[in-house]
Structures are given as C-alpha cells and as structure tokens.
C-alpha cells in the first residue's frame, strides 16, 4: 500500500463525463490498495468565466489591483476548485468509493497574504490523515489556501500543481502524479517542432529550468517544492483510457528524478524551452555605484512585480545599462514605476522597453561538463540570421532574448542542432 | 445613522448589469449615512446549475441522500453565494465604496450539522462590526454556515432570507430590507387572482402563517427569526430604479409589524395562501393507545423528513386513522419509512398516500375575535363543488387540503368571498 497524490488539470475536469472518468481512474488506484489524495483544478474555462464576470464589474485595472479588490478576486476564483472537489467526491461515492472533499481553508493549507500569488507556508495534515485512515479518498482544492487573517488566497495560475506537490510533501507521499493534457515532458513543444520527443525521465534541475523557462507542463513552484522535499513527481496523460492496467499507467509519462545517473550525463542538452510572455526593459545611463541595483529593482519588487532575467554589463565612464525582463502583463506597470520612482531617484538617463521579445533556452545537466554548448547555440542562431539581444547563463542552461518573430525558427534550428530529434540523444 | 441589512434575491443578482445596479442602490444608502450589511443570494440559475452537475454524477437519489453526499452537495451549492458576494464587493469598490465579502464560515455563521437543511445556532459579529466601524460595507453569503466540525452547511432553499434576518438579529440592526422580485406581500398570488392587492403592513403572526402556508415571498424560518428577535422586516421590490429617493424606497413594499393596531383588527382575513408542494399520507387502522403518535412520527422525523399538517381523528373500536402531509419531494421516502418501520412496529392496517393534493388557507389575525370565518370558508368551497379532504385550524388561520386540480378555483372563490379585492378590506 502506498500513499499517492493525484493532480488533475482543468481539461480532465472539463465536464461531468470527464469527472466520472477521473473518478473511475482514482477508484482503480484505490482498489489496487493505495491511499489516495486527489487535487483537481477548476473545470476548464471556469476560472476565466469567474474573472470575466469580475472584469465586467471592475473594468479599471488600477482599481482591480488594489489589495481590497485582489482579496475579492481570490475569493471568487477559488470557488472554481471548490466546485470541482465537491463534484469529484460525489462521482467517487457513485462508484462506491468513500470520499470527502475539503477547501484549502478546511485542511488548512496556510499561505501568506499575497493575494493572487500567495505562497504556501504550512499544511496541517491531521484531518486528511484521519480520513485516509478511515478508508476515504481525500479531495483537496488546488490553487488556494487561507492566510493568517482567515482570508482565502490563491497561488496564481497553475497553482494547483503546487498545491498537489505541497500536499504530497507534507504527507510524505510515495509519489505525486500530475495528470495533464500532455503525456509527459518533451525535448521542446511538439506544436513548434514536430520531431520533439518525450523524455521518460528528466532530472529535477533540468525540469526546474524547463518550467521556469516557459515549458507549461508544470508550474515552476511545484517543481521547486518537489525538489525541496524530494517528492517523486510524474507527469502523465489524463487521456489514456481510465481502465489501462495500473502498472502500465504507473510507469507512463515522464518521471522527475533526483539521482543523476550515467545515462543522463550522456545527454548534453535535454530540451529547448521558450517563453513569449515576457517583456524587456532597460534603464540606460545608470550611475555605477554600490546599491544601484537595489535602487532599481527594489521599487519594482515592492510593486509585487516578478522579475525574471537581470543583466548588468560592465560600466564605462561611470555609467552602466541595467536590463531585466518581467511578465508582459506587468510591462506597463513596470515602466510606470521606473519613470515615476526610479529615474528621479537614480539620475539615470532614460528607460527603454520592448514587449515583442521572446526567450529561448537550452537546458541540460550535461552542460556542466561540456564546453562549447553555448557557442554552438550562438552559432546556430547566427546561421539563421537571428540577432541576440540579451544572454544569461546558469550551470545547466543558456538563455537568449531575441525578437519574438524569430521564436519558432530559433527553436526548430536549436532542436536540430543539438540532435534532440535523434533517439540516441535520449535521456 | 442606522444599521441596515439588505438582502437581494437571485434575480436581483442575475447578471453583472444587475449586480452593478444593486451596488448603486447600496451605495445610495451608504451615502445617506447608513451602515450596511448586504446578504445576496446566488445568481439566478446558479444553484440549479451546480446541483444539476451533481445529479449528473450521482443520479441515484438514494446515494445522493447519504450524509457523505449531502455534505458534498452543500459544499458545492454554497459556492453560488460565494461568487455573488465577491462580485458585489468588486462592484461596490468600482463605485468608490469600501466593501469586503465573507463566506458564512468566515463570519462565522455557526449552524448544526443537518446538511441541506441546517439551522443557525450562533453568529459571531466581531469581524463584521470591526469592518463597519472602519467604514466598509460588509457582504455576507446567504444560505450557508459552518458546523461544529468545520463543514460547510446550507440552510435549504430560500435560506438567504433566514441568513439576512439572523444577521440583522445578531447585530441588532435597525431594519432588515428583503429586496425581491415582487413588490410586497399580497392578499394572495396575483398570478392566480388578478384582483389581489398589496398589503402595506402585515402582522408578524399573519406573515408567519402566510409564509408557512406556501406564500413564497419570504422563507418561513426568516419570519420565525424576525419574530423571535423582533427584527423589523420589510419586503420590497428590487426592480424600482436604484436612484429613486431613499425616503420613498424606505417606505415601499410591505412592513412586517409586531404591534396589532386597531386598523388591523378590522380586517378579518388578511390573505389567502396556498401550497401544492405537499403530499398527504394516512396510516389506517392504528391501535389507539398512548405513544402511538410518536411511534408513527418518530421514524419519519429520524429520517430528517419535515412534517407539516398532522391530523388524528377520534377513534372507534380502539383503532384510529392518522394523517399528515410532507413535502412532495419526501413523499416516496416517507412511504418507504412507514412501510418498513412503522407498519410492522405498530400493527396498523395499511398506509395510503396521495401526492396530487394542495393546501389552501385563509389567514387573519382578526379571526381570533370573529366567529363564522371557517364556516364561510367551507360554504364557499361547497358552493364550488370542491370536496375538503383534511381540515386544520389555528388561532389565526384555517387550512383545508383539497384535490390539486381545484386549487386556482378555490383561491379565487375565497379571495372574492372575503372581499379581499375591495380597498375597504385593506389592512
């Protein structure tokens, strides 16, 4: 008997027919002798429907981003998953499987008070454990929790992955299975590169980079959580028939591993990730003195804007240029913050920005011990006539920012250049 | 400055356009200097949509009435109001009015654990008072609360009225205004009798009878609550333009009063109520001995089935017939309980039932001091050739059970016989 956490995405929960199929799948695991905690997302389209109603009533984005409004938006959006868990519990009961559902506040899943992007601080598993011991499947809302003041919070888009992994970590589950509408992690997006291949395993660190670089299979925070607590995590398809043999299901998809085996080392590059949700901003002519980075980034962070890549090049004549990227949704707000708060305070010359960019990255744990990977990347892009605007690197990835219009071309060229379409390159 | 509770029904909350209009109305009251607590229902159709999804997944009504399933149905249905309160809070904020929403569990509104028909046991108003003192409109979900184990419960259909009155009672509000899709309490349903007139006031006791007898304007438990705590209650239309003068709005509709003034005494009959949601059940040939009523009703009550009228006539030959009515939805379940549990235990001869009945009642506080009201009722029905199957009376009402098909005819005839269409009979 193992303790297993299942997470189902919105598409899997998209209709009562699909919910019934999820219940049959969960029932199969229960009948095989396992204890199950299930974390479903809202029915597909439901969160957008709710936020659409809200937008109708509060068309002004400035008003809608006040703390009072964000609090209401969270309470509103959280009902989507509350509907899902109730329906799934009923579907399981109809299958003859004892089941009970909880909202995040009931578990409770405790978070901080950052509405719409809260972070989980603690999970009390007493109640869930008691139900499991009583032979029940426990269904917990994804995406949400409760803050110290008793307000409902949400974890942001895709937060249900994080909820599932956090529950798995808190309960020391044997495995966390993320059922989704893709059948695993690919070398890159098959919609861009038809030759993309599914990886049967990927290292935690590679997965972290792939997720953070825009691969939408798993939310980045869920991967971080899995890494921190070493939760065995598997991404697999919710579209296989529910009644395939459990052994077959249990070994399908992509397993995120924590051991670097020899086979992994052979693959220099595991995959190509890309992201066109970002915008680039440069603060030009910044006086190069201690504390200047904080003077620029501090006010942006205070406005609760997440920053991705940050680049500061060497200075000349006592001045430097400072560039970073933010989510495209935060682009206008970031420019505003910089112009009103940062320019006057720092004496920088000007602020420039471009929202029509994308980031393309090559990721691979093998890069640590292989030189020349970055240069091969740059040469490939050069051969295609693609200008590189920004570069950042880490131990296991190299990212470039390029004009958005070259994204597909760059991804296809790199996928081919690193032989990712070849079985021999398999991880 | 007064503390006012507003309650808005599902139709008033039926679209974002209507929610905006509710927000404008509430804002008008706030700007007139009042403190406002608002209790909205779910958007019209939403509760049915949610329960429809549930029924899809759990088509077997026997399974769907287990405690485990009822718990899930409550958690599910409660999301309807959780959406409403969030949207209304945003709509108020968009009007420049500070507003905060709470689910029943957050207030908290404490209830017992009778899922789908829970009763409010206590309301903690600390949090709400603090918000009011801080100048905020507080929006609280109707229809729901939290039980001692931390489960979400609902109060049953129409429960939002009860929530509003209970909140008004707990906070000692100056008035509770129930905004609805009718503009007050009528002598009877205008859809059946076009000559029906609106009453500008009605006594609490008459309202209690009207509500319990099927007048759908207010949920019976909300009237009981109002009576117990002497909450001034007004039923008024949510379809008047939101910007009519506040004095005009504050005196519209029907006020439920606690003082019997002279004028009221003049009206013998205030209104005609009717109800076709009931079914009639008789246990025939019951041994007439002490404790027999409990032996019959006990198991029905244990099955959480509400009983309305109960009649036991004088016995002959040591046997009697015992009749009562239940909600039509509980008809089959009640027959089952009686046949499996009551017949064997009591030695009664048989159980008979009829779901095609209706109850018609005349209600009036003046009946206390006027003889001949009941006989006039019976003669009127006799003149129309309508057979009376059961009769019950209280101090201020007389009810008859008749064949469902005669309902409209009976109501129209009685309305005319008691001069309710005449202005002179006005209360």
Question: What this model shows, in words?
Answer:
The structure is a homodimer of 427-residue chains. The first copy, chain A, has a domain at 3-260: Carbamate kinase (3-Layer(aba) Sandwich), CATH 3.40.1160.10. The model of chain A has no long low-confidence stretch (mean pLDDT 90). By secondary structure, the first copy, chain A, is α/β, with parallel strands linked by helices. The longest helix of chain A is centred in the first third of the chain and has 28 residues, at 67-94. Chain A is globular and about 75 Å long. Chain A has helices at 16-31, 46-57, 61-64, 67-94, 126-133, 159-170, 204-212, 220-229, 246-250, 262-266, 292-302, 331-346, 373-383, 407-417, and strands at residues 3-8, 35-40, 99-102, 109-111, 120-123, 137-140, 144-146, 152-154, 175-180, 185-186, 198-199, 201-203, 233-237, 254-257, 271-275, 278-287, 307-312, 319-327, 350-354, 357-363, 388-394, 397-403. Helices cover 37% and strands 26% of the residues of chain A. In chain A, the strands form 6 sheets. In chain A, strands 3-6-2-1-9-13-14-12 form an 8-stranded mixed β-sheet, with helices on both faces. In chain A, strands 15-20-22-21 form a 4-stranded antiparallel β-sheet, sandwiched between helices. A 4-stranded antiparallel β-sheet of chain A has the order 17-18-16-19, covered by helices on one side. In chain A, strand 4 (109-111) and strand 5 (120-123) form a beta hairpin. Chain A is built from 14 helices and 22 strands. Chain A binds chain B through residues 16, 19-20, 23, 50, 53-54, 56-60, 63-64, 66, 68-69, 71-73, 75-76, 78-79, 82-83, 85-87, 89-91, 93-94, 98-101, 103, 105-106, 150-152, and chain B through 16, 19-20, 23, 50, 53-54, 56-60, 63-64, 66, 68-69, 71-73, 75-76, 78-79, 82-83, 85-87, 89-91, 93-94, 98-101, 103, 105-106, 150-152.
